[in-house]
Amino acid sequence: MSAVLDPLAWAARAEEDYRLAQSALRRKRPLLYGACFHAQQCAEKYLKALLVFRGKDFPKTHDLAALSTLCERAGMIVPVLPDDLDRLSAYAVRVRYPGEEPLLEEARAALQIAGKVRRFARRLLGLK
What we know:
- By secondary structure, this protein is mainly α.
- It has one domain: Up-down Bundle (Four Helix Bundle (Hemerythrin (Met), subunit A)), CATH 1.20.120.
- Helices cover 67% and strands 0% of the residues.
- It contains 6 helices and no strands.
- The relative contact order is 0.20.
- The model has no long low-confidence stretch (mean pLDDT 95).
């Protein structure tokens, strides 16, 4: 099976992003850009893992609310508010280039949102 069609391969990448986001926040001087980016990537990859799990196609997108809507259409109601998903989606691009730095509170919130998506996805995928 191609890794692209394997939900567990998506989940493994998502889990790596989650751990990178955690590590970025645990540093003496937290890496806020990295924490926000990897939190977004974690949520995105877990949502895509769920869609692959259900055999559903999805577009190339970083829009977490759109991916959540696709999950909903496939019978999986993601327990995260659309506004929170939109906030997290912005980090896919916003933090990759110089500009406004996220605050520590924003980075923590990003990881918390990603954690909700992570717990939901792992439960549906039968992962601990």
